[in-house]
Amino acid sequence: MLEILLLFVLGKKIAAIAKEKNRSPVGYVLLLVFGWFILGFGGGVVLAIIAVSGGAKEDDALVAFIPGYLVGVVCAAVLAFTVVKMASPLRRHRGGDEYDDYDDYEEESRRRDDYDNDRPRRGRRDEDDDFDRPRRRDDY
Q1: pLDDT tens digits for 109-119?
Q2: Contact of 68 with 46, CB cutoff 8 Å
Q3: What residues contact 70, with CB distance under 8 A and at least 6 apart?
């Protein structure tokens, strides 16, 4: 239970750092969670194997698993915090916190439409011109 609470607190801190840099916190928190279990259990298993190969009994190998697990967990937390702190901040699109629900793409398309409206357009030819030329193949 304590481990879940610790993951929750560390995950919130990593998410806050990522949001400060205008990045999505999902990948960084997932790095923490998966790294926590993979490096934790990996470190524990490695230290247990080293203890067994050194001549320890099974009970002593389980006792050696715990420090290996803790070292792996600390490495995962340090790795996750290092990665999120090394990420470069992204530039905000519109003035920062003032989100106005206005789509930049719509503004660009409006500008393009205004430009198109300023240019003279080719109109349809007069009705008299339509009678001068044949429309269908049968009219040739």
Answers
A1: 555 555 555 55
A2: yes
A3: 40, 43
